[in-house]
Amino acid sequence: MNQPAENPNESEHKNFIEVEVERDFASKAALQGRSIQTRFPPEPNGYLHIGHAKSICLNFGLAQRYGGKCNLRFDDTNPSKESQEYVDSIMTDVRWLGFQWDGLYYASDYFQQLYDWAEQLVREGHAYVCDLNAEQMREYRGTLTEPGRNSPFRDRSVEENLDLLERMRRGEFPEGTRTLRAKIDMAAPNFNLRDPVLYRIMFSHHHRTGDDWCIYPMYDWAHGQSDSIEGITHSICTLEFENHRPLYDWFCKTLRIFHPRQIEFARLNLSYTVMSKRKLLQLVTEGQVSGWDDPRMPTISGLRRRGYTPESIRNFCETIGVARFNGTIDVLVLENAVRDHLNKIANRYMAILDPIKVTLTNYPEGQAEELEAVNNPEDPNAGHRALPFSRTFYIEREDFMENPPSKFFRLKPGGEVRLRYAYIIKCDEVRKDASGKIVELKCSYDPETRSGSGAASERKVKGTIHWVSASTAHCVEVRLYDRLFQSESPEEAAEGKTFLDNINPNSVTAITAVIEPALASLPSGTRVQFERNGYFCIDEKDSKPGEPVFNRIVTLRDSWAKIAAK
Ligand code: ATP
Ligand code: MG
Predict the structure, then answer these.
(1) pLDDT value of residue 159
(2) Homologous superfamily, domain 277-347+476-565
(3) Model confidence pTM above 0.90
(4) How high is the pLDDT of residue 559?
(5) Residue with the nearest Cα to atom 13 of ligand 1?
(6) 245-304: per-residue pLDDT in tens?
(7) What is the number of the ligand 1 atom nearest to the C-alpha of 56?
(8) Residue 511 to residue 354: CA distance in whole angstroms
(9) Which of 10, 291, 401, 443 could serve as 425's disulfide partner, Cβ 3.0–4.6 Å?
(10) Is the CB of 223 inside a 6 Å radius of any atom of ligand 1?
């Protein structure tokens, strides 16, 4: 655990899980002399998403806070959907978020132990081999209002069950023909207790155990016992497992093994986002996005590539807290978290996304000067840089209006505006092409108004705009990302439609922007603010040396108020 608590007040605020944990350590005999042990248990069947980040922050956070340990455990019990690629990506993402696990485990490490325990249940009369197929089993299970019926195979002798189980394991029976079930109570109001399946036959190659096994444990049979083996004191999971808890408890009790406490919390849902691995996988396989790390994906790798910082994601998880009831968090909260962090750490630069050329008719041709720009007003240590200025430069098309409304304080015919770090200029003439599109503005500048040059520079005009000098500008690709989904709850698709129909057709726009030269030589992965435009990150995959590609991370909260006229 290398992540110190950043917020000094953090220790005063306790979420409900922390309250429960403290109570347990104060009162439970079984916990005396132990310290907290948690785990983050992903199934390696996809890349991690922002919802997993919440679980990671929670599990690692508990261990940090109470001086305990947190394991990373791969819940790899369903080989048909799992792979080493996913295992690797999960480790990368957990580390990138700033956490280091204590133990690294795989549920598949415990396959033999789980099998031994299954035999123990059989020997003690608590499990049986059942020959019902999936459909018959559904019929026997009963409904919410009716109890289930006992399987006709429920009363097999211990010897017969042991023999059949072993033959299942040896691969004598085809898939779907037999299962091992716990013998609990077919009339239990909780469906999970109606003789749940422990093992199913699956002739699948496992990414770690190869072809050693052709029966694989169900989640419920593997999860709690894996927790128990690792001495997990608190097994934190999401609410959908609340009604699996009686089964979790039944297994630990019946096997007489160390009994972790399962505590459930609400899973994170975000507006304008889908958050299930199955759906994210579908976006990838159907080519709706460029991959799991597409910068529009809510995956950790997508957010990383987009330019999110680990700190901003951890802060986000801290801000939203831990709830006992499911709800949806506004995606704005996530966007604000990255904005807040980048405001502190990102250097500011000039970039023009939609340029119009400006020529200063009274600025001597061939003359150039270097102005001094502040890298980050929020960080005194960020220093200054030289900003080249000359007779011709670009401004944003939207910073000029030919027939503006009265409150328009940027450039207009006959009007003045200040160029950030430079001079006050006045628009004298508008040049258009045959189609009427503005192609150039002829302006004049007031040489007495250079920023920081003394009294004359204090002359005030209402607007300040950014610009990029033409002779030293670089042209680069900029990807303007927007939300991947246009509906607030994309999973709630209209009749006959799917979540894919809610995709925002304009979730990315690639443009060519002009940037100041200092931006062109920054390394991939660098996060910057384009003044007045937003926060951008140099794409790690598609950039080449000297040819950066910029991803828009997020727009500025308020692109105007922040820049005081200088
Ligand atoms: P998904 O439903 O997205 O496929 P999952 O629950 O199947 O996710 P796992 O790999 O089993 O994914 O999850 C690992 C851990 O992360 C589990 O403890 C799970 O409860 C937790 N987790 C998964 N999704 C969320 C979420 N949206 N919010 C909080 N925790 C989550
Ligand atoms: Mg799962």
Answers:
(1) 98
(2) Ribosomal Protein L25; Chain P (2.40.240.10)
(3) yes
(4) 34
(5) 42
(6) 999 999 999 999 999 999 999 999 999 999 999 999 999 999 999 999 999 999 999 999
(7) 16
(8) 8
(9) 443
(10) no
Mutate to test the pocket of ligand 1, among 55, 57, 105, 234 (most ligand atoms within 8 A of CB): 55
Q: Which atom of ligand 1 is nearest to the CA of 43?
A: 10
Confirm or reject: Cβ of 268 under 6 Å from ligand 1. yes
**Using alpha carbons only, how large is the chain's radius of gyration in Å?**
31
> 42 CA distance to ligand 2 centroid (A)?
7
Q: 238 C-alpha to center of ligand 1: Å?
A: 7
Give the alpha-carbon dihedral of 488, 494, 496, 498, to 10 degrees: 10
Cα dist from 183 to 138, 188, 201, whole Å: 16, 12, 19
CA distances from 467 to 188, 302, 355, 366, 396 (A): 71, 31, 9, 18, 7
As to burial, measured by CB atoms within 10 angstroms (0-12 exposed, 13-18 middle, 19+ buried), residue 242 is middle
Cα separations in angstroms, 454 against 176, 381, 451, 462, 486: 85, 25, 8, 19, 50
Angle at 381 between CA 378 and CA 385, to 5 degrees: 90
Nearest residue (CA) to ligand 1, atom 27: 51
**C-beta of 52 in contact with ligand 1 (< 6 A):** yes
Question: Which residue has the least CA distance to atom 9 on ligand 1?
Answer: 42
277-347+476-565 and 351-466 have identical folds? yes
- Sketch the domain layout of the chain as residue ranges: 8-265, 277-347+476-565, 351-466
With 60 as the cut, is the pLDDT of residue 244 above it?
yes
User: What residue owns the CA closest to ligand 1's atom 1?
Assistant: 276
For residues 92, 94, 98 and 104, what is the CA-based torsion angle, rounded to 10 degrees? -100
The answer to whether the CB of 244 is under 6 A from ligand 1 is: no
Round to whole Å and give the CA distance between 315 and 6. Answer: 9
82 φ, ψ to 5°? Answer: -110, 160
Average pLDDT over residues 44-48: 97
The tokens describing 306, both together, are 């987009």
Q: Which two tokens stand for residue 292?
A: 């799991």
Q: Separation of 219 CA from ligand 2 center, angstroms? A: 8
- Indicate which residues carry an active-site annotation: 43, 267, 277
Query: According to the model, what pLDDT value does residue 455 have?
Result: 63
Look-up of token digits 């005030």: 460
Locus of tokens 């050329």: 357
Distance 251 CA to ligand 2 centre (A): 19
Beta strands in 365-437 (DSSP E): 368-374, 384-390, 392-396, 416-419, 424-432
Q: Answer yes or no: CATH 2.40.240.10 is held by domain 351-466.
A: yes
Ligand 2 centre and the CA of 405: distance in Å? 56
Q: Which residues contact 81 (CB under 8 A, 6 or more apart)?
A: 43, 45
Rounded CA separation 282/288 (Å): 8
Per-residue pLDDT at 452? 82
Domain spanning 8-265: CATH 3.40.50.11540 = no
Alpha-carbon span 102 to 25, nearest angstrom: 21
Residue of 539, 519, 531 whose CA lies nearest to 555: 531
Verify whether ligand 1 is closer than 6 Å to residue 288 (CB atom): no
